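Record passed on here:
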Amino acid sequence: ASFPTKKHTRAPPNTPTRFTRDGVESPRRTHKQARALQTHNMHDHRPIELEEGWDTMAKGITKLKNLLEGLPETQFTPEEYMRLYTTIYNMCTQKPPHDYSAHLYERYRESFNVYLSTQVMPALRNLRDKHMLHELVKRWDNHKIMVRWLSRFFNYLDRYYITRHGLNDLNDVGRLCFKELVYAELKRPVKDAILSLIEKERDGETVNYSLLKKVLTIFVEIGMNSLEAYETDFEAALLSTTSVYYRKKASAWIEQDSCPEYMIKAEKALLEESERVTRYLHPSSESKLLKAAETELLATHESALLSKESSGVSSLLVQDKEEDLSRMYRLFKRVPGGLTPVAEAFRKHVEEEGMGLVRSSEGAAAGASGDRAGSGGAAGSSTPAPTASRESQDLQFVKDVVVLHDKFYAYVQKCFENASLFHKSLKEAFESFINKGVAGSSSAELLAGFCDTLLKKGGAAATSAAGAGGEKLSDELVEERLEKAVKLLAYVSDKDLFAEFYRKKLARRLLHDKSASDDHERIVLAKLKQQCGAQFTSKMEGMVTDLQLAREQQSKFDQHLDNLRNSSSSNLPSLDLNVTVLTTGFWPSYKFMELNLPEEMEKCVSVFKQYYEQKTKHRKLTWIYALGTCHLTGRFQAKSIELIVSTFQAAALLLFNRADSLTFEQVQEQLNLPEEDVMRCLHSLSCAKYKILLKSAGEGQPDGSPKMIAKTDVFTYNHAFTDKMRRIKVPLPPVDEKRRVLEDVDKDRRYAIDAAVVRVMKSRKVLQHSQLVVEVVAQLQRSFKPDFRIIKKRIEDLIAREYLERDKDNANLFRYLA
């Protein structure tokens, strides 16, 4: 159109607009000038009649139409604009019956209807497809120009008449005319033309994005501040055709493509739909359009896609296809509930991998047991020592579990974006196999043993890779492995059992100076405390603190002995003595045995007792000789050898300084120890690797097994003993600590269940049996998973001890007794 369409500066509503030569409006003339013209007409005392005034307006409207149609026509001059505006002003401000506001409002509407019917629609009816779209965009733009300028000519109607009567304003009237005469007739063919272009674009053809955006803008603008027209007349059909299009595509892809190939195509299609919205669709369509595509591409075929043979989710996990797994997560998180099957497949795969480790470890343990049985085991002790191969198998199992956890935890972080659903699946999978135990050993025991190996001197090298040649691990690597081992504890149900095993091993490391680093010990305790709570590590922290205080105590005791030497006191021990004072509540319970100490040792103990009683009051010392270590010098024929032995072994050997031979009963009587401990002690000195004592059958007794101790045996000092080393450590046969730990844990669990039941009943007063069990389990599950049968027994015991009573009328109802 030749009509000027430049962007103009709006004048105030009551200010007429003046045109410059280049067509840009300038608010020079004011409303007072229009009023001056009206006043001049009033001085003529002749009102403007309807037809007379409309003739003037019709000429202006015709000129505007010619400009829009591109016909030869001059531009509006400022005088013409003022004449048209003033004509409407005068006709609306005349006194009745010459106030023609209502008539002008109707003729304003009629002007659009005539133009649209006679010139716009004929130009559009004979066009199809994109030609129709181009013409529609042109006609809509022209119509908006016509509405803008006619509303300025008739502006006085908007200011008073329309506002007073609550009618549609002039802009709305112009748009409604277009909607009723043009849009209503063309919306269907226009919609079909747009959908045809969109389908062509989906099939790879190039389309005019600008044209599509302009046409769809008409659907939005025609709604006049509402998306109803866009949603009803176009979007609904778009969503329907989108579903049909992708339904056909998905049916073809699912048959011919593998799961990764299908997902690549689906992800590309969804990305293209999102870009389509950016290019020309209304933003409100994005979520609906993507949902329609996702339903057909993902939700409908999810089961078939995930279970595809050799390329489904299980195969992707087996083949470690991280990129494809990430794509699968990104796609199916769009679908409500779409990740649940993926997480379930992930859980099953992790569980199967873990069970494979369990079966492999059990098979190796069974093979090792068969080899030992075939070769014949050493006799003479109540519990044969586990072989190095068994220990390495246990370590290897824990290492394999750590590697497995690292692998799938990385999957959860990278492929599954740390989603809680997959963390839950990983947790359930590990809990299912890690709590089954391996070859009679619980996971709590194996995990505690793994940590012990890392923390004791020379043990970290044993946990290094098989191909590493047992090389020493750096501190950083040790800390990393300890942290990973502690993470596995989250999946162990019997955390109290782990705590007891770990405490036993920690005590051995601390008391026998086998701990590689105090810093590592504290780091592990800090991690355990963070994961399991302060109560879990309180005793262990007390043990570490005890040892630190004991070192300070020993330093003060050594200074005390130096003072005695300087004063030439006769109350000096003949031996060097190191004493570690422990707090009973922190350390594992040890069996107290009243050993008859040799005279040399007895004097040392007496000196320390006197010193300790001077320093502290109201504290009782209980000597645990089973934990002691002695350094003796054995004077043999070949050479003297330093012997590192336990206190029990030292006491037994020192007996032979006063006698050449002793019977078993004599040794037991002089040591005042139980038979089992004497047997273990003598076996280590006469039947094991280092035969410091010679064993022979008693008089009149048949010779027994060289690897067994009998009560009738006689023992003599072996003067001919020798060894290539000048210092040797004589170990005692190991005691079955596992059975003792299990007994202690079982006892502690009974107390814990009793306490939990009493706590619950004290707060609830009256409770049903089922609810009581549920609440007790909830309180204890962070430490261990109690057996329902044991809970029932403990309830019965508390009833017998009159903590609870059973309701007379309802046997399943309990009452708390204060």
